[in-house]
Amino acid sequence: MARARRVFADAERSEAIDTERELRTAADAADVLGNMKGALMKIGQMASYLDVGLPETTRSSLAQLQTNAPPMSPDLASSVVAAELGAPPDELFDQWDPAPIAAASIGQVHRAITPDGRACAVKIQYPGVAEAISADLGSARMVFRALSALFPGLDPAPIVEELRQRLTEELDYEHEASNQRLFADHYRGHPYITVPEVYDDLSSARVLTTELATGAAFEEVLAWPQDQRNRVAETIYRFSFGSIYRLWAFNGDPHPGNYLFGADGSVTFLDFGLVKRFTSDETARFERMLIAMVIDRDIPRFRAELVAAGLLPADAPFSDGEVEAFFTHFYEFVLTDETRTFTSEYAAAGVRAIFNATGEHAELKKVLNVPPALVVLQRINLGLISLFAQLGATANWRGIAEELWPFTDRAPSTSMGRDARAWRRSLR
Predict the structure, then answer these.
(1) Range of the domain at 321
(2) Between the CA atoms of 126, 131, 133 and 138, what dihedral angle is there, to the nearest 10 degrees?
(3) Are residues 381 and 239 part of one domain?
(4) Per the structure, how many domains does the chain have?
(5) Is residue 349 within a helix (H) or strand (E), and if so which, with residue range?
(6) How confident is the model at residue 383, as a pLDDT?
(7) 277 lies in the same domain as 376
(8) Which among 65, 384, 411 is positioned nearest to 243, based on CA atoms?
């Protein structure tokens, strides 16, 4: 219990939470969330990492969609817990903090200690948010109609349906609990990757209770020495691409607020509401594209994979050289076996390569489409690149990637890789 109380004390409340605006009733929540356009707000948050490199008008539009909902009052939060779990939190928990430690777009998080001495984080969904988002999902089509103006070859319907499914899943905390258990089971005991355990006995469709985690916030990490920033970036990189190729799944919300950091390079990963589980066929296609572009540098074969994936029309009037020139950017950091540094210029170029309808490769972009399986994957790539650019992350990313790709399975190239290999071997 003493250790739990220390963890409880270390999980500080966010100073950004404005209690003057707190929601006191379910009616308040429904009204505010309706006015904030629930689904569009969430999509705006999902796109917030794209800020650098976007046209000014697009940045301004997204900025209006990134506002977090105000927190619930203690009484309203308590009533949600009671309705979901059968009793108010002060009866369910040995200790309960009525003030949230975080407030987000569809829920807020409280710290607590269970009767058996477990320090925990309790995420409570805003009453009415599911209805607000469900009613607003149709409006998401407006966003993708705008994208269609930039990319005439884009079919917005599959993208809207993909995000509809992911956002709908995010509203179901039982589904999120299942996602989190998948990752927690896979990474349990890892020397650098931590996923908090789910406490099923205190969870439901709208309340999710997990192990309480502590660590440094991303803003603190930005002030750390470069070698420490490199290590946390390597951990995130290993988690991200190791999950895709070893677990066939990834948390599709690479937002710095979803990470807690340790000085040794360890990272605790939070929030598994938006997870994409890839099929074996989808993962195999990613592998074939990588092998063609990166390992064999066979551009005609790479182009054939683009066509098979639905990214590029078979009759697109562009040379293999033009296709290579456009897509090389997205593989650049694993094309060569050397140390590279992510920069803000590179991150901005990646965003412009996708969203800038004028300039280089403009005609080619007009015929491109984005298959549903690649929607979340591209979001992962852009989000991670933006985050790594802020960290100035430096490493031999090709070397690390070849440790993670099943089709190369290279020997460890870093001390972290050697520790991870020892952990994997201990599981056999």
Answers:
(1) 214-428
(2) -170
(3) yes
(4) 2
(5) helix 344-355
(6) 80
(7) yes
(8) 384
